[in-house]
Amino acid sequence: SGAAPAAAASEDGEDREGCAGLWELPVERCERRPECGRCSRPQKVCLCPFLPIHPLKVSTCLYIIQHPAEESRVLRTVPLLAACLPPDKCKILVGRRFSEDRYPELATVCRNPNTLILYPGAEATNLEEVAVMSSSPSVMIIIDGTWSQAKDIFYKNSLFRLPKQV
Q1: What is the pLDDT of residues 12-41, one digit of tens each?
Q2: Which helix (H) or strand (E) holds 145?
Q3: What does the alpha-carbon distance between residue 129 and residue 108 come to, in Å, rounded to a whole number?
Q4: Where are the domains positioned within the chain?
Q5: Which parts of the chain are beta strand (E)?
Q6: Residue 51 carries which DSSP code?
Q7: Torsion angle, CA of 149/154/160/161, rounded to 10 degrees?
Q8: pLDDT tens digits for 74-89?
Q9: CA-to-CA separations, 12 to 17, 67, 94, 124, in angstroms, rounded
Q10: Neighbouring C-beta atoms of residue 51, cutoff 10 Å
Q11: SS3 for 90?
């Protein structure tokens, strides 16, 4: 008969002959495309020609709270924002949990009455209605992640419920 011999199977039903030698196959390392050092985009789609040559002069300081999964995404936008602002006006903190002990500067910022956090909710004020009366520069906290990740960060970090929500 022209039938192929049946593959040997173990008592638990696993196909041993079909997988034999699979572990010997070479594993190719996935190499990322070269990235631009300024905008962190792949070099072939670098956006630096469209970004300001000199950092923008802004009075508001941004604290970007970035979920760790966002840091490795190819088309992430935080590096674009950071490339447009002076380093002292754009601070990026990567993580899921931000305690007062580990992030004393962030705790101080969250307690500042001029600090706003960009997060939707029943307590949030329309940003257009927020009048910045103070002469001191304001601070804006932005959570970078999917809605699920942002919600997790917001609700599991009591510091983020201290600033005015917009």
Answers
A1: 555 556 666 656 666 666 677 788 888 888
A2: none
A3: 25
A4: 52-165
A5: 61-66, 90-94, 115-118, 139-144, 164-165
A6: S
A7: 170
A8: 678 899 999 999 999 9
A9: 14, 42, 45, 57
A10: 15
A11: strand
